[in-house]
Design a protein that fits this description.
Mean pLDDT: 93
Radius of gyration: 18 Å
Strand content: 5-15%
Largest sheet: 6 strands, mixed
Order of helices and strands: EEHEHHEEHEEHHEHEHHHHH
Number of helices: 12
CATH architecture: Alpha-Beta Complex
Low-confidence stretches: none
Number of domains: 1
Structural class: alpha/beta
Shape: globular
């Protein structure tokens, strides 16, 4: 796997800090970022990190999928080493705590990345949204994970309305566990997880996560295949419209 500098790795005590590092593109989930994230997870395990904090550089946490990559074959099958859904699956199935540190907007795949983490700490400047449907695609991982966090009706509302969710509302919905003032998000997440891993044994922590998964299993095969349920002509129009900076025209598909 080709090395990438789009995800930085740092060991802070017993915790691995993985930082999305493509601020010029708002840390969109490009092929490079996904490959870098897999590499960061491998390094975390090799370093025997007891926990992982996921953070980001720049004003945005993650702007979602990279549109250029979506148009260039991602909607019709991906290299497993570059598949965001497989990245989310691996993250959610780790046997150690994973904390998201969200300093800015988390849209689409960025919000799915947050959902794949066990806990989330957000800046009061952070906000969330799921704009996929307006682009003719679906938030395939969020369809599985979001209802478990906020309930089915609220999840459907957030996906269908595509509205912006400010940090305070995200806290009330349970999307994040705590809010902090801008600038201290990663440190707060590191402190939160440090208190956990320094006072709990690894087997018990792993058992908690394993049993949570067992009580609420996720159909990952369905998550991985569901983007193909959307007709190609619809997502092509949605992504073309986004690239061309115009409103998508879906009226003909209703006819």
């Amino acid at each position: 796997m080709k090395p990438t500098d789009k995800v930085l790795f740092e060991l802070r005590g017993h915790t691995a800090l993985l930082t999305l590092n493509d601020p010029g593109r708002r840390n969109a989930l490009s092929r490079d970022i996904v490959r870098g994230f897999f590499q960061g997870l491998d390094r975390s395990l090799e370093a025997r990190a007891r926990a992982i904090v996921v953070a980001a550089n720049g004003p945005a946490f993650c702007a979602g999928a990279n549109i250029d990559d979506l148009r260039d074959g991602w909607m019709e099958g991906k290299d497993p080493s570059e598949d965001p859904a497989l990245m989310f699956k691996r993250l959610s199935e780790l046997d150690r705590p994973v904390i998201a540190a969200i300093q800015g907007p988390a849209l689409g795949g960025g919000m799915e990345l947050v959902l794949a983490c066990d806990l989330a700490v957000a800046s009061d400047a952070a906000w969330f949204a799921m704009p996929e449907l307006g682009h003719g695609v679906i938030p395939n991982t969020a369809l599985a994970l979001l209802p478990r966090v906020v309930g089915q009706r609220r999840a459907l509302d957030l996906i269908l309305s595509r509205r912006r969710i400010p940090a305070a509302e995200a806290l009330s919905l349970g999307l994040v566990n705590r809010l902090v003032s801008s600038g201290g998000v990663a440190e707060e997440a590191l402190e939160l997880v440090r208190a956990v891993v320094e006072t709990s044994p690894p087997g018990a922590l792993a058992a908690v996560k394993a049993n949570l998964r067992a009580h609420a299993p996720i159909a990952w095969d369905r998550v991985l295949s569901s983007p193909k349920d959307v007709p190609k002509s619809e997502w092509q129009e949605g992504l073309d419209a986004f690239t061309e900076r115009r409103a998508a025209s879906f009226e003909r598909f209703w006819n």
